[in-house]
């Protein structure tokens, strides 16, 4: 049965093989535009998690402190009853929050979005996409007027230079990496630049590797722009015609000489010059940006910096010349476009009354029901409200925050609070589910029908190949059941949510997306059965004509201050008269909120390995993947290891002001003074007395603009352990 990969954002098309009602394998689909038959190791083996004997098969509720199995009627009854109690009290909508995912399907997000925004009317909705690609969305909105990826994967085939900004694509999107390697090993290979504090496979392949100090991306990008302008490598005509803010950009980056940048970033001035030349003299430059930028200090400013670089070189929307402000999760794009996170569906602007009116008409509800009086509550704030007690029901779907959020000791404390009613919807009894009041067993990929969209806007249909185990239900069915129990009504007293299955929701979503940047009106289930299709249909690249989505009536945001995150008013935005031009935004470098000290002298950064997906609920259950990376580690520079008296494989303690992990040392090409710990390892299968989740160490701090947490910069102390 046709589907696409669910363990990264590449959207590799595949067929699911079924025997005796069970999934028995997968293979890549040769005809698809995204992957041409290739698959990632996680996809080749990860499906085995579907068949795992410890899948949740019945709902559970907390009784006398323990979780016990029950039936759907009891479990959903409790969720609806608690919701009703809260809603019937004053300001009830403000007591209910939803924390969802980048791993459900488009239809599920849209249904959830309508439930939250038009049914309950809560502004407290977000996804783990806040931890993942909130910065991509913020940077795309601020530079180009709306979310939506300008580039296309075919740019890999056509470019003459590739710059990877904090993106270890070789381990995180292996099929895209193979496409890059095809070029590198073929005729006219593109030059390659890697910006990463570690010597990743990407860094080893690149012609130039800038091993920047974590948290200094803005200084680097400012310096590169300065050199490009200094050498006259920018496209003055494009800048004049299609952008706003060039003079101020030039003023802002002026102090960032190669020597100044070298001092901040810990690289050589000559390498800064070389990088500027590589970028400045290419004719078709492709950039990809990911977590080394998005989860690091000044995230949105750094990501906008890459947009700036492309805009001043006139390299947006051209074959081979473009930016991929990458997605990470398989369906992150859909959370953002369908409005299950803070955004309004269809990339609508919460500050624009006309956009609110459109939604109110579409859903036939009162405009005042739809939260739009302030920016939507971002995930980090939702958790704070839960901590402070104003939020009293938190419904978590398809994410495992007890391992994936920063400062886990705090998150465990919040989840365990008796006043907070926690609903967890998952496949397994995860670290988070163990702390829930109600656990809802979900069906997953291969067991339900729906669509999702990859990082280059390609939509795939994922068919239902097998039945879910036991009583597990598709997430959409769970949300629709809740809507029925809550009896949400529209302005005329008719059911707000009349849908019964995914295709009906998709039809409703098409209507909602009409005329917006993410227009799905040209896409149907039937057409998708032939293979992946990009939105909007017929546009391989956005902004090919140099006209951006910045018109005040159309744009998704009126802008934010890049250093404080403060939101601009409609008036101020209109006064800029963007008229379809893109914005060049820039700010100076500021150090991370936590930098090394005497007590915590080293920099910690965190991230991924090729064999595991996130908190490993799927990949630890695939024997091949688990065997390839069974336990966590810390990467140390050999000189740091020698100084600390640590040898390869020895146990070491890594401590931060928040907590400790004890993991094995690996001596690698990470920058001196920096250590790296993968964040995949939670505690469901941890040996006793060995804390090992990287997020025991990380801090509660976020980028002021995108509100994405800073997983890539903390201060730590490393010590040998016997
Ligand atoms: N194998 C695998 N693949 C995945 C996933 C997975 O869990 N496993 N998850 C998917 C998801 S959701 C995502 S979001 C993507 C993430 O994909 P990536 O962003 O490629 O993955 P990370 O390892 O989180 O971070 C990338 C790099 O950032 C570097 N880095 C750290 N700090 C800094 C800094 O300050 N500046 C710079 N320039 N670089 C820095 C790290 O050394 C790391 O190599 O992967 C997707 N694909
Ligand atoms: N230190 C550090 N922390 C990080 C990061 C980092 O680089 N460093 N990266 C961040 C990023 S980019 C991300 S994306 C997050 C990921 O963090 P999480 O979202 O917490 O990670 P997952 O393990 O993917 O959790 C998804 C959960 O959904 C369940 N699930 C899977 N499919 C379905 C389904 O169809 N329905 C339902 N209901 N459940 C399903 C899985 O069993 C799993 O428990 O972690 C973030 N945390
Ligand atoms: Mo992610």
UniProtKB/TrEMBL annotation:
Determine if RNA-binding is one of this entry's keywords.
no
Keywords, A to Z, come to: 4Fe-4S, Iron, Iron-sulfur, Metal-binding, Molybdenum, Nitrate assimilation, Oxidoreductase
Pfam family for this entry, one: Molydop_binding
Q: What PROSITE patterns does the entry give?
A: 4FE4S_MOW_BIS_MGD, MOLYBDOPTERIN_PROK_2
> Where does the 4Fe-4S Mo/W bis-MGD-type domain lie?
1-54
Q: Which cofactor does it need?
A: [4Fe-4S] cluster; Mo-bis(molybdopterin guanine dinucleotide)
Q: Which family does it belong to?
A: Belongs to the prokaryotic molybdopterin-containing oxidoreductase family. NasA/NapA/NarB subfamily.
Name of this chain's protein:
Molybdopterin oxidoreductase
């Amino acid at each position: 049965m046709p589907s696409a990969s669910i363990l990264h954002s590449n959207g590799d098309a595949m067929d699911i093989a079924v025997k005796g009602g069970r999934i028995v394998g997968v293979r890549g689909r040769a005809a698809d535009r995204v992957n041409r038959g290739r698959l990632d190791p996680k996809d080749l083996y990860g499906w085995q998690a579907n068949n795992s004997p410890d899948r949740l098969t019945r709902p559970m509720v907390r009784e006398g402190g323990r979780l016990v199995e029950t039936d759907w009627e009891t479990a959903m009854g409790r969720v609806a009853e608690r919701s009703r109690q809260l809603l019937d009290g004053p300001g009830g909508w403000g007591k209910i929050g939803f924390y969802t995912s980048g791993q459900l399907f488009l239809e599920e997000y849209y249904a959830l979005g309508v439930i939250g925004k038009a049914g309950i009317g809560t502004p407290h909705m977000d996804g783990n996409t806040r931890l993942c690609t909130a910065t991509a969305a913020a940077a795309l909105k601020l530079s180009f007027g709306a979310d939506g990826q300008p580039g296309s994967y075919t740019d890999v085939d056509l470019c003459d230079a590739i710059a990877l900004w904090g993106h270890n694509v070789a381990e995180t999107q292996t099929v895209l990496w193979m496409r890059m390697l095809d070029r590198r090993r073929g005729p006219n290979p593109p030059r390659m630049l890697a910006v990463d504090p570690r010597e990743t496979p990407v860094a080893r392949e690149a012609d130039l590797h800038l091993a920047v100090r974590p948290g200094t991306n803005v200084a680097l990008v400012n310096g590169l722009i300065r050199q490009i302008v200094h050498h006259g490598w920018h496209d003055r005509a494009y800048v004049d015609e299609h952008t706003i803010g060039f003079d101020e950009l030039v003023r802002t980056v002026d102090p960032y000489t190669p020597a100044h940048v070298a001092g901040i970033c810990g690289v050589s001035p000559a390498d800064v010059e070389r990088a500027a030349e590589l970028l400045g003299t290419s004719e078709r430059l492709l950039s990809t940006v990911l977590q080394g930028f998005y989860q690091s200090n000044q995230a949105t400013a750094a990501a906008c910096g890459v947009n700036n670089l492309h805009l001043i070189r006139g390299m947006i929307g051209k074959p081979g010349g473009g930016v991929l402000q990458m997605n990470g999760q398989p369906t992150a794009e859909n959370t953002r476009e369908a409005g299950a996170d803070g955004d309004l569906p269809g990339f609508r602007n919460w500050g624009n009354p006309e956009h609110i009116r459109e939604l109110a008409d579409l859903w036939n509800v009162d405009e005042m029901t739809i939260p739009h009086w302030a920016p939507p509550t971002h995930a980090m704030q939702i958790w704070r409200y839960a901590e402070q007690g104003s939020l009293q029901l938190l419904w978590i779907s398809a994410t495992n925050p007890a391992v994936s959020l920063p400062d886990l000791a705090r998150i465990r404390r919040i989840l365990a609070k008796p006043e907070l009613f926690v609903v967890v919807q998952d496949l397994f009894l995860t670290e988070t589910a163990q702390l829930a009041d109600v656990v809802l067993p979900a069906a997953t990929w291969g067991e339900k029908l729906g669509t999702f969209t990859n990082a280059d806007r390609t939509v795939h249909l994922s068919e239902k190949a097998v039945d879910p185990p036991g009583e597990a239900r598709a997430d959409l069915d769970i949300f629709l059941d809740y809507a029925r129990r809550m009896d949400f009504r529209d302005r005329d007293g008719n059911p707000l949510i009349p849908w019964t299955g995914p295709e009906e929701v998709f039809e409703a979503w098409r209507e909602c997306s009409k005329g917006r940047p993410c227009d799905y009106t040209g896409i149907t289930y039937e057409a998708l059965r032939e293979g992946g299709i990009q939105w909007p249909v017929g546009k391989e690249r956005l902004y090919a004509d140099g006209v951006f989505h910045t018109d005040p009536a159309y744009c998704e945001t009126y802008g934010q201050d890049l250093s404080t995150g403060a939101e601009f008013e409609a008036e101020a935005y209109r006064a800029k008269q963007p008229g379809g031009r893109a914005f060049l935004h820039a700010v100076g470098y500021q150090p991370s909120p936590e930098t090394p000290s005497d007590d915590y002298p080293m920099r910690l950064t965190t991230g991924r390995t090729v064999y595991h997906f996130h908190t490993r609920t799927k990949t630890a259950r695939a024997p091949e993947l688990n065997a390839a990376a069974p336990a966590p580690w810390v990467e140390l520079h050999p000189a740091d290891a020698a100084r600390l008296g640590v040898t390869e494989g020895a146990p070491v303690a890594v401590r931060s002001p928040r907590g400790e992990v004890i993991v094995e040392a690996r001596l690698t090409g990470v920058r001196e003074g920096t250590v790296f710990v993968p964040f995949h390892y939670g505690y469901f299968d941890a040996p006793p007395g060995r804390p090992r989740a990287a997020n025991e160490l990380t801090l509660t701090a976020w980028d002021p603009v995108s509100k994405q947490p800073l997983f890539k910069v903390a201060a730590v102390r490393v010590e040998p352990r016997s």
